[in-house]
């Protein structure tokens, strides 16, 4: 187990320094090419982060998996996209070559497209024919229902009684005073349609009235009050110090400020120390930061301040590097 850990450490150190011979020697000694460090980065991810593009092809040929993700959820291809390393994307993101044997077998297979199209067309025609048949049956049933409804029988009036008169007496017939209308509504389907339209109009009118009443509600209606966020009582100020190889090479080291609220559990007059491990690009900007020590609010404030720090590219010799910034928080 000690030998495996030593080989993995040698592989990580060789990739970080960009030494291709050391990488080949570590792999020859049995180092796992997909071994992870504390941050979850594999050898190929470290090669992309530190810009050692000449090691990417070597690691891919040794079986490195560029799709493995680190603790930040990024793989080698996504790191290459962030760093703008197009040559790495061409190496690890190239599509796999097709096999000619499988292509030859695929050419020899008879194309089944025509039979499938014929089957789909036949199913479509049957489905359309079934739909048309159901529509015709429904229309036929509606006609039969309308024809089966009996029309109301008109009420017959009694025949007038003609009095007996002598043959010589002239007969006068009285003219009808109120003739019955000839066009009376006796069609039951038309009457049902009229009732349905009347009910629909009434329902729509009621809906419009209710909408107007709801829109014209009184502006004095109480609304839910938003909860106000608690305001901080004071701030813990964190003083930064660049440690190790970064000492004297900083351009800007912003102070960290951590808000303190009422009933804060931290005791007064106590100093807290947070170490932030950072990685710097060639222009002197911090592109990765991770805090250790203290509680979560202190680590968050220190990481945010460290991410805004800048360093001199000349003093860093325009190379990517990493180091540590120590923050001391006091009231």
What do these coordinates show?
This protein has helices at residues 2-17, 20-28, 43-49, 56-61, 76-83, 86-92, 100-108, 113-148, 188-215, 296-307, and strands at residues 234-243, 250-252, 256-260, 272-280, 286-292, 310-311, 321-330. α1 (2-17) runs antiparallel to α2 (20-28) and α1 (2-17) runs parallel beside α3. The strands form two sheets. It has a five-stranded antiparallel β-sheet, with helices on one face. The two termini are 48 Å apart. It has 331 residues and is an alpha+beta fold. Helices cover 42% and strands 14% of the residues.
- The helix content is 40-55%
> Order of SSEs, N→C?
HHHHHHHHHEEEEEHEE
Q: Could you say which overall geometry the principal axes of the C-alpha atoms support? A: flat
Oligomer: single chain
Biggest sheet: strands side by side, in what order? Answer: 3-1-7-4-5
Number of helices: 10
- Low-confidence stretches are 95-118, 171-175, 181-186, 217-226
Give the termini separation. 48 Å
The biggest sheet amounts to: 5 strands, antiparallel
* DSSP, total strands: 7
Query: Approximately how much beta-strand content do the residues carry?
Result: 5-15%
Radius of gyration over alpha carbons? 45 Å
Q: Name the structural class.
A: alpha+beta
The averaged pLDDT comes out at 75
């Amino acid at each position: 187990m000690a030998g495996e850990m030593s080989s993995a450490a040698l592989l990580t150190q060789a990739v970080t320094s960009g030494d291709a011979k050391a990488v080949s020697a570590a792999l020859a000694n049995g180092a796992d090419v997909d071994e992870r460090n504390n941050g979850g980065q594999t050898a190929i991810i470290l090669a992309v982060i530190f810009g050692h593009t000449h090691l990417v092809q070597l690691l891919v040929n040794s079986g490195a998996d560029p799709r493995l993700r680190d603790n930040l959820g990024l793989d080698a291809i996504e790191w290459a996209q962030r760093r703008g390393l197009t040559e790495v994307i061409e190496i690890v993101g190239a599509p796999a070559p097709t096999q000619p044997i499988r292509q030859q077998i695929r050419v020899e297979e008879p194309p089944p497209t025509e039979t499938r199209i014929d089957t789909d067309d036949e199913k479509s025609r049957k489905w359309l024919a079934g739909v048309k048949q159901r529509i015709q049956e429904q229309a036929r049933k509606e006609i039969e229902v309308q024809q089966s409804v009996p029309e109301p029988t008109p009420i017959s009036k009694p025949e007038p009684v003609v009095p007996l008169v002598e043959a010589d007496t002239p007969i006068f017939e009285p003219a009808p005073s109120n003739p019955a209308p000839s066009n009376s509504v006796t069609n039951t389907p038309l009457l049902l349609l009229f009732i349905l339209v009347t009910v629909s109009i009434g329902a729509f009118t009621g809906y419009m009235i209710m909408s107007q009443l709801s829109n014209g509600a009184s502006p004095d209606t109480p609304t839910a009050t938003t909860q106000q966020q608690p305001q901080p009582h004071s701030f813990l100020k964190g003083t930064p110090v660049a440690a190790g190889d970064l000492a004297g090479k900083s351009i800007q080291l912003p102070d960290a400020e951590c808000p303190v609220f009422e009933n804060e559990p931290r005791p007064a007059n106590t100093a807290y120390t947070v170490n932030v491990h950072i990685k710097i690009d060639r222009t002197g900007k911090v592109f990765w930061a991770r805090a250790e020590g203290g509680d979560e609010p202190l680590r968050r404030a220190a990481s945010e301040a460290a991410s805004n720090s800048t360093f001199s590219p000349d003093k860093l010799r325009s190379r990517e590097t990493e180091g540590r910034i120590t923050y001391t928080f006091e009231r």
